[in-house]
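Annotated sample (chain length 139).
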Amino acid sequence: MADPIAPPAASQPAEAVELVCQAVSGGDLEAAIAQYEVGAVLRPWAGDPGGNADDVAGALIQLMDLRLPLSVRICAVVPASGLALVLGERQIAGAGPDREPVQLSGAGATMVRRQQGGSWRIIADAWYLSGPRAGPARS
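Output written by the structure step:
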């Protein structure tokens, strides 16, 4: 059954990044994905050259599987004719589902585009999270 309440729309460029963090922290994949345009790319481990830069849902699910809050501190917003670059620092910390400590933090750069109607959605997102248990799960 679909949620009768639509995910919030970002009214400012930085709000799109903040809404993703809130949705990931709350385990709401639909609300997190709603902040990205169709065809957007996400690379949560930008320092991993083999990382998947196309699967937004897959990357968000990996983060949600940690079952820890994701926070962001916006450092700068650089606007340009219908686009904006949002620079920030993200952090995930706590005990993961296996009770092992997780401490990931790092800088990120997010490109957002103004939509018809004035809201903002992410078109490209790159984070560099590092620390214990950083990077995508390996087999």
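Annotation: Helices lie at 13-25, 29-33, 56-65.
Annotation: The beta strands are 36-43, 70-80, 83-95, 101-114, 120-127.
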